[in-house]
């Protein structure tokens, strides 16, 4: 099976004395149910799984389960022979957001202490907003993402000891030997094609069939559109789908940010007019937000009030599938006429987001834009990151201007590119693009 880092975290929680109910939150099709099922069946002799989306369109056994007794009765219909005690029984409530009242009920299930519970949700942020009584003291939310680059490498038989050696070189700011760099860059480009959706990665690893993999990615994009069509407001549904469909084309623009007037093609519209739609796209995990900052200081969240926003797709494979379909040459070969800037920015956003960073970009008219700003907690400062897909990676006027502004007090700045070189010049450290996998929250 595919290695997922979150497996150890799930196991640690289930075996600990922490009695909060763990909820794994994340977009559809990233492998939440699979990994919970794998851990749950291994740890508990009595494993019970109930998918609430399936129940909602089928028997609706849990539709009116507002008390613990109601819940146990419904559960007994599904798996009465497996209802043992807390130590032997794990109840997995899959897609819990299908029934808002179950989120409130978790507090009482926890207090009753009859079984061990775990849940998953693909639109949890939205469901919690709609829930009248949020049991924050009774739940622990853990976010899950598509497979990151390290997990992809392991799926392609790159051993953990070698990755640890790479991490050590990164920490020492040293490059890989040229032959190994070429191998890593080849795998990185293949990751741009596959992305981190487990079904796509499995298909690529087992068959190397690009057409089949692209069909999987196309179906996932369609599923995201179907989910948006379930939104309660019909007007919002259309705007959600419109914004989501705009993301790939926006990535090809110079500014890359969302323009409110283009959503409905009406003059005078503002970003605040579409707050609900943006909340849906971001909370459901199908897009990644990068907020504008004009006056960077630590922590960045205190300065992100600008009404400018970039949205990236949550998975780089979905982006390359949309842009290039079955043609792998734009990604695998250095074709001068094709600009892969949006693809490289997306994979960096995906990687940093999976590692726990909130993402921002620098935007000031007279100085230009810097791709990413993240909090540098060690130095209580701001870290700047510029992403380059071409050979002109040493040309970055906006980043150079940014570093010259002393009041910003920037201690670290990086340029990520295809170059194998690792060196620091004028306050900027140049790193191979695949080293992004080692940027971690402390």
Descriptive report:
- By secondary structure, the chain is of the alpha/beta class.
- It has 18 helices and 13 strands.
- The chain has helices spanning 6-15, 32-43, 52-57, 68-79, 100-112, 124-130, 149-155, 160-171, 178-194, 198-207, 210-228, 234-251, 260-264, 275-283, 316-324, 329-332, 341-354, 397-404; strands at 21-25, 46-51, 89-94, 116-121, 139-143, 287-293, 309-313, 360-364, 368-376, 381-387, 412-417, 423-425, 428-432.
- The chain has an eight-stranded mixed sheet with strand order 7-6-8-9-10-11-13-12, sandwiched between helices.
- A hairpin with a 4-residue loop joins β9 and β10 (381-387).
- α12 (234-251) packs across α14.
- The chain is globular, with a radius of gyration of 23 Å.
- The two termini are 29 Å apart.
Task: Describe how the helices and strands are arranged.
Layout: H1 6-15, E1 21-25, H2 32-43, E2 46-51, H3 52-57, H4 68-79, E3 89-94, H5 100-112, E4 116-121, H6 124-130, E5 139-143, H7 149-155, H8 160-171, H9 178-194, H10 198-207, H11 210-228, H12 234-251, H13 260-264, H14 275-283, E6 287-293, E7 309-313, H15 316-324, H16 329-332, H17 341-354, E8 360-364, E9 368-376, E10 381-387, H18 397-404, E11 412-417, E12 423-425, E13 428-432
């Amino acid at each position: 099976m595919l290695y997922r880092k979150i497996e150890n975290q799930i196991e640690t929680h289930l075996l600990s004395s922490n009695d909060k109910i763990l909820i794994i939150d994340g977009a559809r099709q990233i492998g939440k149910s699979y990994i919970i099922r794998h851990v749950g069946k291994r740890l508990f002799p009595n494993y019970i799984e109930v998918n609430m989306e399936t129940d909602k369109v089928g028997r609706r056994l849990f539709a009116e389960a507002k008390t613990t007794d109601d819940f146990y009765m419904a559960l007994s219909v599904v798996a009465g022979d497996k209802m043992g005690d807390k130590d032997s029984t794990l109840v997995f409530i899959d897609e819990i957001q299908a029934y808002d009242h179950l989120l409130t009920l978790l507090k009482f299930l926890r207090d009753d202490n009859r079984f061990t519970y775990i849940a998953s949700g693909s639109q949890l942020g939205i469901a919690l907003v709609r829930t009248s009584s949020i049991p924050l003291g009774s739940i622990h939310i853990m976010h899950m993402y598509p497979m990151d680059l390290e997990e992809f490498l392991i799926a392609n038989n790159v051993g953990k000891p070698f990755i640890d050696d790479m991490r050590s070189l990164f920490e020492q700011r040293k490059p890989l030997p040229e032959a190994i760099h070429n191998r890593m860059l080849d795998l990185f480009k293949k990751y741009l094609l596959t992305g981190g959706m487990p079904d796509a990665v499995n298909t690529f690893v087992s068959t190397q069939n690009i057409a089949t993999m692209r069909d999987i990615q196309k179906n996932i994009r369609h599923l995201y559109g179907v989910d948006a069509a379930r939104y309660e407001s019909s007007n919002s549904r259309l705007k959600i789908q419109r914004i989501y469909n705009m993301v790939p084309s926006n990535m090809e623009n110079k500014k890359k940010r969302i323009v409110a007037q283009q959503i409905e093609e009406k003059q005078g519209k503002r970003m605040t007019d579409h707050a609900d739609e943006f909340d849906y796209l971001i909370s459901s995990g199908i897009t990644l937000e990068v907020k504008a900052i004009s006056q960077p200081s630590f922590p960045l969240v205190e300065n992100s009030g600008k009404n400018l926003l970039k949205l990236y797709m949550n998975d780089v494979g979905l982006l390359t599938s949309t842009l290039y379909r079955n043609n792998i040459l734009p990604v695998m070969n250095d074709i001068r006429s094709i600009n892969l800037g949006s693809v490289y920015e997306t994979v960096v956003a995906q990687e940093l987001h999976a590692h726990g960073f909130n993402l921002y970009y620098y935007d000031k008219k007279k100085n230009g834009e810097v791709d990413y700003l993240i909090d540098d907690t060690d130095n209580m400062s701001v870290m700047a990151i510029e992403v380059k897909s071409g050979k002109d990676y040493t040309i970055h006027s906006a980043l150079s201007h940014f570093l010259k502004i002393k009041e910003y007090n920037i201690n670290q700045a990086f340029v990520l590119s295809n170059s194998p070189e690792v060196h620091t010049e004028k306050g900027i450290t140049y790193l191979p693009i695949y080293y992004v996998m080692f940027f971690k929250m402390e």
